[in-house]
From TrEMBL:
<dbReference type="InterPro" id="IPR006175">
    <property type="entry name" value="YjgF/YER057c/UK114"/>
</dbReference>
<comment type="similarity">
    <text>Belongs to the RutC family.</text>
</comment>
<dbReference type="Pfam" id="PF01042">
    <property type="entry name" value="Ribonuc_L-PSP"/>
</dbReference>
<protein>
    <submittedName>
        <fullName>Reactive intermediate/imine deaminase</fullName>
    </submittedName>
</protein>
<dbReference type="GO" id="GO:0005829">
    <property type="term" value="C:cytosol"/>
</dbReference>
<dbReference type="GO" id="GO:0019239">
    <property type="term" value="F:deaminase activity"/>
</dbReference>
<dbReference type="InterPro" id="IPR035959">
    <property type="entry name" value="RutC-like_sf"/>
</dbReference>
<dbReference type="InterPro" id="IPR006056">
    <property type="entry name" value="RidA"/>
</dbReference>
Length: 125
């Protein structure tokens, strides 16, 4: 059985998709950028603060189905500049405990709302 996940504690979907979807034991969280759901604006123009907020948004979506970052098994990171990867790694180590989830990191030309980073993930119950 598949169902959408919705929370007011993360930015609302900016199109015809769910913030997350559950399918069996797996939960798929749509890409999150550093938008503060209280202001509906980017928290900062810095990649570290945007990443921290994006991960907080992921936590909010996961919490709706009683999961945490410890349940995340795979992430995909989209960066507008791969030179920011050392900053990403530094923040990653503080937000994800060991064993950390598998991760792919891709440089993209542009992200929504001028964001510098976006993160999507898969969690397992």
């Amino acid at each position: 059985m598949t169902y959408g996940i919705h929370t007011s504690h993360a930015p609302q979907a900016n199109g015809p998709y769910s913030q997350g979807a559950a399918a069996g034991r797996y939960v798929y969280v749509s890409g999150q950028i550093g938008i503060d759901p209280a202001t509906d604006a980017l928290v900062s123009d810095t990649v570290d603060m945007q990443l921290d907020q994006a991960i907080t948004n992921i936590e909010a979506v996961l919490a709706e189905v009683k999961l945490t970052l410890e349940d995340v098994v795979k992430t995909t990171v989209f960066l507008t500049d791969l030179e920011d990867l050392p900053i990403v790694d530094m923040i990653w180590k503080t937000r994800f405990s060991s064993p950390r989830p598998a991760r792919s990191c891709v440089e993209v030309r542009r992200l929504r709302d001028g964001a510098r980073i976006e993160v999507e993930c898969v969690a397992c119950r």
